[in-house]
Structure formats: C-alpha cells, structure tokens
Amino acid sequence: MSSSRDLTRNLKQIAAKLKTAAVWNGTGLAVDAEQDDYLYELLCYFRAAVAAGSGFRLEIAGATETNRNGRRAARWPKKPGKKANFSYISLLDSKTGAHEQFQLCPGVKVRDLHGKDRAPDISLLLANAPPQPIYSHVAGVWDAKYTASEEARVPDVAVADFVYTFQQFGSPKLPSAWLGVVTPQEWRCSGVLTNGKESTEPTAALKASGIAETCGYPSAAAKTRP
Fold first, then answer.
1. Residue 37: which of 82, 89, 87, 80 has the closest Cα?
2. What is the pTM of this model?
3. Residue 33 binned pLDDT confidence (cut-offs 50, 70, 90)
4. Nearest CA-CA partner of 44 in 182, 155, 145, 163
5. Quick check: 55 and 4 in contact, CB under 8 A?
6. Which of the residue ranges 3-17, 74-88, 98-112, 178-192 would you say has the lowest mean pLDDT?
7. 3-class DSSP state for residue 185?
8. pLDDT at res. 68
9. Which contiguous run of DSSP H or E holds residue 145?
C-alpha cells in the first residue's frame, strides 16, 4: 500500500465481504493509517478471514456491542486484550455451518508454555478454545508490521521477536484441516507480514525456525519466503 487512502480503501473492500465484522467498536473506520498500526493489523486479519472463507463458513463470535443504528457490531481490539472482551471469527463447517473448526482471533492474549501472556496480531485457535486460551489451543500465529515507507525493511529484531513468541507457544504446526482449504501462501505458515521490504534474515534461517515472512503485503507483488 502506498498511502493511507490505499490502505483504507483496501480495508473497506475486505470489510464489505465480512459485513458485520466491518465495525470497529461500533465507530466505523475513523482511523489514521499513517499513525494507527492497528489498521494494518486489522487489514491483515480480514485478509486471513477472507482466505479462510474459501473453505469455512464465517461467523462473528465472542463479545459484541450494539452500534448507533441498533445493530449487532463486532468489537476489535486496538491493542492486546483479553479474548473474553472482544470479538473473533468462528470458522464453521462449510456445508452444515454447525460445527466450529477453528477460531480466528485478532490481538488476544494467549498464555505461553511458561505462563506468560503473549498477544500475536492474529491467532488461529483450535475449536472451542476457552475465553482464556493457552498455548495448547494455538494452531497458528501471525504478526503484522506496518511501515510508513514501502522502501523500509521489516527490522530483523521484529522477526527475531516473532520467532521467540512462536517458540513460546510450542512452535505450533498448522493443521491439515486448515492447509487443505486455505491456499494463499502467506497463511500456510505462521509468520510475519509487512507492507515494506523483507528483512535481511536469510531464507534458510526462517525455514529453520519454522516461520515465514511476507513482504509488500497486501499488494499484488507480495512475496512470501521460504
């Protein structure tokens, strides 16, 4: 994305596909893409949901509120928070819509192997994960790293931080039920997404750590490695 206008337009297009998911605490889209990183995080989150929509039925779950028009509205976190306080997207069986397969959550806290709460920007949790999830409920995680300049590289330290978080969740592997229907490369491995350029970390290092890195996202020229 080359400007806040492009980001906001892209967000609105994706939000339209998710209908009731397209409300930010009932206040619409009054955010500044140049200042508010959570807009890019939400954009990536919706992209993940759209990718999942090819194989699952999407349904808003968790905490909701009533917007100014008296309609049910989703509540998305602007910063890490408790899962019980916010909405998430439940991924249901595509044929019956009756059985939950996964929960796609934005920025919620999950307790790691050693009892510390960590909040990846996007978490794929197993079906029926509780309001206070722990590492054993995690199926996949992603972090979104926004930069005001498309020419800027995602910092190596951001990649290293993500690797550490991934490891503290037990280095989860995406289940076959997800991989069997979600085809975009950036969602087939836990990893870091950025609208800027790739880090200087070697591709072999990413592979050895079990993560992916996607740069230029979500432009048509986005590239995922390894």
1. 80
2. 0.86
3. very low
4. 145
5. no
6. 3-17
7. helix
8. 75
9. strand 138-145
CA–CA gap between residue 218 and residue 186 (Å, rounded): 10
Helix residue ranges per DSSP H, the chain = 4-18, 37-52, 156-168, 176-179, 203-209
Tell me if the bond preceding 226 is cis, omega within 30° of 0.
yes
d(CA 52, CA 178): 8
Q: How many CB atoms are located within 10 Å of the residue 3 CB?
A: 12
Cα-flanking dihedrals φ and ψ of residue 135, to 5°? -55, -35
- Residue 96 is classified by DSSP as T
Query: Quick one: CA torsion of 169, 43, 178, 119, rounded to 10 degrees?
Result: 10
Report the SS3 class of residue 123.
Answer: strand
Cα within 13 Å of Cα(79), Cβ side: 0
Cα(135)–Cα(171) distance, integer angstroms: 9
Weakest-pLDDT range from 37-41, 121-125, 186-190 = 37-41
Cα 198 to Cα 154: distance, rounded to the nearest angstrom: 6
Task: Provide DSSP, 10-48.
Answer: HHHHHHHHHGGG--STTSTT---TTT-HHHHHHHHHHHH
> Could you read off the pLDDT of 107-162 as tens digits, one per residue?
999 999 999 999 999 999 999 999 999 999 999 999 999 988 888 999 999 999 99
- DSSP count for the chain of H helices, then E strands: 5, 12
Cα–Cα distance measured from residue 92 to residue 102, given in angstroms and rounded to the nearest whole number: 7
